Amino acid sequence: MVGNDKGLSIVDVIQERLDALESRAEIREQETKSLKANMKSLKADIKSLKADNESLKADNESFESEMQLIRIPELLRFLPSGQRPDNRQRNQLVHGANVKFDLSFLDSLSTKNLSFLSNHRLQISDLDKAFNKRYENNPGIFRREMSDTMGEVINMRSNLLNLDVWKSVTDPTRKKKIKNLRRKCGRLIKKWLSQPEPQPYSEEEMQSRLDGLYREYHAYVVQ
Fold it and tell me: Which of 53, 56, 170, 209 is paired with 62 by a 20 to 30 Å CA distance?
């Protein structure tokens, strides 16, 4: 035997050290795996943050674009009548339907919003009534998966029903075209509402139908 505190032979000492090295190696391997997992999670978080940032950037750009559509025509209103641009797009943005925004607003009422209602002697039920009148459906019916294209169909029908620019049309041919387009929007909405989720159309089919509605809208309604 070689002298040592435990009275072990040289072979036993070497084996003990090998076991200790193996144990440390296993610990480091686990630490490496844990580090790799953390790095993978961190990369996923960074990717998610980048996506959120891009979405926020797109929202900001969309907001700026919409504000330009609102403010620039409003300023140019003070030019002589012959120089003023067509305000139809601006008026539709300001007064037109936006079902997804309206639903989001109703679902996220804050203390500030409630104070506004209270100051005007209104209740949350009054917002539901206003929504129902605008879209001819209560908010609860629309609280389901709604693509952007389906939202545009709902908005188009509401605008054709409620905006003065369309309500004031007197030409019989144009009135008939407007009514026909409203019916086509209504049929798409009815089918969408009558089916269980997810929506009964593929996104490609829905976009194709919407493109067709817009072609009719610009060919026969907007003049």
Answer: 209
